[in-house]
């Protein structure tokens, strides 16, 4: 059953990329059936009515699939519930009187745009480096021309589920994007369509990742724990093998 | 102006091939001299931009999210149709065509639907080649499932994330072209106006959502693929940012708006629970393959579902529609849910819900099999409601989901403004008065991958386009008008928030122009909407300034457009006195309470021409003829 709870929020406020930010404190009363973003909506409506600027945060689908939302909640990207995006986190996970500290996903490669909004355009550039199969529209074989084992197809789908939210980067002590990059590399490496460009893809994408200023992987596995889609770190090992082969060939 | 749909002559099955041959081509070496603007990079826009880039055009693509990968298409769960007949169950291009025309309650254009069915198979081939991991059987070939309104299994899917996987496929093609330099991507840009020069679409004005700057972009043709307008209802299954702005502003520049009253209310969504609620969540229609819909037979039965014995349950869809059962089309499933709840049989705390029960399917197929098919949907349900659908039936209720109406386009997808083409959910053409499940993804990708690359070439090859620059007076004037509008919004400094107006409008639309519509209610809405709009322009408060990242300002612009558009939508609903598909006029129903069409008077498309804010738009009609699928009263009994 739903109930009302009172919370104290400490939220990172930053006007734009070049300004320095600080924490502001807000009190909010929320329904436990509300989602985390709906709780923020309530805070924002109150701020707007009193002529103050609302807290900027990215969001769109509010269904956990577009990857637009995200913030660090009490030190955890997307908050305390495993395999759950911020928009799908519901207030029943909190207790009356709780304090919540809210910060943007921080990384050198992802500067803050405003408040909780960050610039993740580096992810698009990493995909541009090779995260595709180079086929054009038209002139492709019948979809059932190649059989793909259900097992591989399922594994590819596990990796392909990545929503590009960048929680993995925010969770990593080195701000590495290895989980994100390896999910795309694995998805295509597990399918016959991805074979012709398999090794060059791994190499190009990793090089771009480095160029963007993401850190190295030191096997902390914080990324997997923070991933709202449960993408496995085994993808990183698979990518490393492909990357090494690309170096040798 | 007489509407010419430009439908090619000849037998239905040969029209598209013949037209493709007859259309003029642009010489490969000349393609790079053409600048093409694509607004929107969901399935329709991303597939179009990538395909045009591959052909060699110089493409600029725009979206309001931070990356094209986040378009609302990403949220589609259930699947995509194609007439592959892999299941050997009697499917064919003709059957997909037939089902779609019938499902649309005979209000779609036959020739467009046939083309859609023809290219459906190419789409699946294309997506597989890109590496889209569709579900497979143990033998390694593609798996299919069935969807509402069809008696064959023709729906391809990728777990419960089909839209995501298809969009990531199109996005990867787009990124490939971006890397090559044929496409330049402009994310976090919102189109605010269309620039028309010498009666042709020649560019757009966008706001850079990070810096607040207004930008001018010129082109030889403009493609709009900006999605649907379901958020006019405030609560819908659409993403929060989905809007009518781009389409509406093009409408104000001369593009006709077709059938705005055709909206789809999806039968299986998580019911509304609180006044802070910001959106409704869809539970994929594929669930109706295995879930059984029921309510208690007794009014006000508050027992837990497990305590209600079989004999006291009413499986109303199975009983009323024995041949389609739980898989009747969406409009029918939705209206039946409303009618049982209106009769006092609804369940849950608000009694505005029905059960969708998987107990039998779990018994028959085992929990593992259900988990494999729907696991992520069940998890989502549990996260939102706090209840476990493996143990207790889901509670569902209809919600606004999709808009069949949109900008009017001819067979070539060109609007009434030459040089402006409209793709995907933003146009009106293929779904008539009701869209069947799994056919929006099909249509978006058909438009982008396989239709526009041909029809755009023909436009460019047959029109002489003078060079224009962004210094042209039309660009200067369009930018100045947008700047003025923004300044006006910021200067009102009233007492009410943008969202409060949006909610108020949504409530009026849901009550008066939702699942059931009456002349009286629609007329009331036509009084209420201008009042809300007037108050908005006097009393809204928009914080912050124009030269910065300002989400309140973004929303204010969108809600201002919904407040104008809503009136046209209601006007259309009032004009169409018949019921058809998702448009249900209570005055026009059969004895059994089904939608009753009036082919004599309404077998046409309504296309509205803008006359000014608050002025009644001028109605133009495109007659529809049904030569291949005979007009009959739909029956799913
Ligand atoms: C929850 C849900 C589930 C669905 N499931 C299915 C399904 O299983 N099968 C099926 O066939 N269909 C399904 N649909 C319908 C289908 O997903 C959509 O109709 C389809 O994806 C629309 O694609 P689109 O490319 O036309 O538009 P969208 O994907 O909505 O893309 C719109 C694009 O336009 C951009 N844009 C919009 N306005 C502006 C502006 N003013 N300026 C700049 N850019 C702008 C956006 O940034 C975005 O890139 C579902 C819909 C919902 C809501
Ligand atoms: S808003 Fe789309 S994933 Fe959260």
Search tags:
heterodimer, A: 249 residues, Ubiquitin-like (UB roll), Fumarate Reductase Iron-sulfur Protein, Chain B, domain 2, 2 domains, five-stranded mixed beta sheet, 7 strands, B: Flavocytochrome C3, Chain A, domain 1, Methane Monooxygenase Hydroxylase, Chain G, domain 1, five-stranded parallel beta sheet, five-stranded antiparallel beta sheet, binds FE2/S2 (inorganic) cluster
Helical residue percent band of chain A: 25-40%
So what's the CATH class of the domain at 479-623 in chain B?
Mainly Alpha
How far is it from the N-terminal to the C-terminal residue of chain A, by CA? 61 Å
The number of helices of chain B is 17
Most extensive chain-chain interface: A-B, 80 and 82 residues
The number of E-state strands of chain B comes to 19
The total count of strands of chain A amounts to 7
Give the N-to-C terminal Cα separation of chain B. 42 Å
The named CATH superfamily of the domain at 479-623 in chain B: Fumarate reductase/succinate dehydrogenase flavoprotein-like, C-terminal domain
- Report the biggest beta sheet of chain B as strand number plus sense, adding barrel if it closes: 5 strands, parallel
Over all CA atoms, what is the radius of gyration of chain B? 24 Å
**CATH topology (level 3) name of the domain at 479-623 in chain B:** Methane Monooxygenase Hydroxylase, Chain G, domain 1
CATH architecture of the largest domain in chain A: Orthogonal Bundle
């Amino acid at each position: 059953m739903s109930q009302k709870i009172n919370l104290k929020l400490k939220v990172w406020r930053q006007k734009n990329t070049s300004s320095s930010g600080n924490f502001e404190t807000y009190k909010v009363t929320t329904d436990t059936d509300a989602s985390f973003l709906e709780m923020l909506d309530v805070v924002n409506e109150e701020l707007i009515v009193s002529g103050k600027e609302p807290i900027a945060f990215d969001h769109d689908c509010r269904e956990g699939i577009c990857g637009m939302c995200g913030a660090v909640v009490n030190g955890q990207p997307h908050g305390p519930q495993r395999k759950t995006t911020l928009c799908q986190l519901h207030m029943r996970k909190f207790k009356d009187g709780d304090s919540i500290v809210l910060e943007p996903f921080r990384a050198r490669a992802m500067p803050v745009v405003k408040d909780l909004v960050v610039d993740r355009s580096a992810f698009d550039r990493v995909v541009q480096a090779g995260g595709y199969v180079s086929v054009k529209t038209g002139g492709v074989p019948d979809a059932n021309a190649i059989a793909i084992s259900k097992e591989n197809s399922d594994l590819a789908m596990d990796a392909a589920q990545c929503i590009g939210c960048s929680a993995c980067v925010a969770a990593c002590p080195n701000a590495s994007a290895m989980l994100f990059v390896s999910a795309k590399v694995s998805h295509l490496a597990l399918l016959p369509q991805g074979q012709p460009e398999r090794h060059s893809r791994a190499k190009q994408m990793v090089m771009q990742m480095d160029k963007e200023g993401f850190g190295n992987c030191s096997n902390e596995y914080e990324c997997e724990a923070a991933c709202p889609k449960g993408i496995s770190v085994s993808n990183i090992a698979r990518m490393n093998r492909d990357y090494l082969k690309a170096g040798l060939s | 102006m007489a509407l010419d749909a430009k439908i090619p002559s000849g037998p239905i099955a040969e029209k598209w091939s013949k037209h493709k041959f007859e259309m003029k081509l642009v010489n490969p070496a000349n393609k790079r001299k053409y600048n093409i603007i694509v607004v929107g990079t969901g399935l329709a826009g991303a597939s179009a931009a990538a395909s045009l880039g591959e052909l060699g055009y110089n493409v600029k693509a725009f979206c309001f999210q931070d990356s094209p990968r986040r378009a609302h298409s990403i949220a589609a769960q259930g699947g995509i149709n194609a007439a592959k007949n892999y299941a050997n169950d009697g499917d064919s291009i003709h059957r997909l065509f037939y089902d779609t025309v019938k499902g649309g309650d005979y209000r779609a254009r036959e020739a467009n639907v046939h083309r859609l069915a023809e290219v459906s198979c190419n789409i699946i081939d294309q997506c597989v080649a890109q590496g889209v991991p569709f579900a497979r059987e143990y033998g390694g070939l593609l798996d299919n499932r069935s969807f509402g309104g069809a008696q064959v299994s023709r729906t391809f899917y990728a777990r419960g994330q089909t839209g995501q996987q298809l969009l990531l496929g199109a996005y990867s093609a787009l990124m490939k072209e971006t890397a090559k330099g044929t496409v330049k991507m402009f994310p976090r840009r919102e189109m605010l106006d269309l620039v028309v020069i010498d009666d042709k679409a020649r560019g757009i004005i966008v706001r850079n959502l990070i810096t607040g700057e207004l930008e001018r972009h010129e082109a030889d043709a403009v493609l709009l693929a900006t999605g649907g307008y379901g958020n006019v209802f405030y609560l819908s299954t659409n993403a929060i940012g989905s809007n009518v702005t781009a389409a509406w502003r093009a409408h104000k520049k001369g593009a006709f708006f077709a059938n705005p009253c055709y909206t789809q209310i999806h039968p299986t969504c998580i019911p509304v629970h609180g006044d802070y609620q910001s959106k409704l969540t869809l539970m994929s229609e594929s669930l109706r393959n295995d879930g059984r819909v029921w309510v208690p037979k007794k009014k006000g039965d508050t027992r837990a579902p497990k305590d209600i014995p079989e004999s006291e349950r009413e499986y109303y869809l199975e009983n009323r529609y024995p041949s389609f059962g739980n898989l009747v089309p969406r409009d029918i499933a939705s209206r039946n849910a409303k009618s049982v709840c209106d009769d006092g049989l609804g369940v849950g705390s608000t009694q505005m819900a029905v059960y969708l029960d998987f107990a039998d399917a779990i018994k028959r197929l085992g929990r593992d099999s259900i988990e494999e098919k729907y696991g992520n949907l069940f998890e989502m349900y549990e996260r939102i409601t706090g209840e476990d659908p493996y143990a207790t039936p889901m509670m569902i209720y209809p919600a606004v989901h999709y808009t069949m109406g949109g900008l009017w386009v001819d067979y070539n997808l060109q609007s009434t403004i030459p040089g402006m083409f409209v793709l995907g959910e933003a146009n009106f053409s293929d779904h008539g008065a009701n869209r069947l499940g799994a056919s929006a993804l099909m249509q978006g990708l058909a438009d982008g991958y396989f239709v526009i690359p041909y029809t755009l070439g023909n436009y460019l090859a047959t029109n002489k386009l003078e060079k224009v620059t962004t210094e042209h007076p039309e660009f200067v004037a369009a930018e100045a008008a947008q700047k003025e509008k923004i300044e006006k919004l910021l200067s009102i400094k009233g007492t009410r928030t943008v969202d409060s107006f949006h909610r108020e409008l949504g409530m009026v639309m849901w009550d008066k122009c939702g699942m059931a519509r009456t002349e009286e209610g629609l007329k009331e809405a036509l009084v209420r909407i201008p009042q809300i709009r007037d108050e908005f322009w006097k009393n809204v408060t928009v914080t912050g300034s124009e030269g910065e990242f300002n989400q309140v300002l973004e929303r204010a612009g969108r809600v201002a457009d919904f407040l104008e558009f809503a009136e046209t939508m209601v006007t259309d609903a009032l004009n169409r006195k018949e019921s058809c598909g998702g448009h249900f006029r209570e005055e026009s129903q059969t004895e059994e309470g089904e939608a009753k069409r009036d082919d004599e008077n309404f077998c046409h498309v309504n296309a509205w021409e803008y006359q000014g804010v608050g002025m009644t738009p001028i109605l133009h009609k495109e007659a529809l003829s049904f030569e291949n699928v005979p007009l009959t009263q739909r029956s799913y009994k």
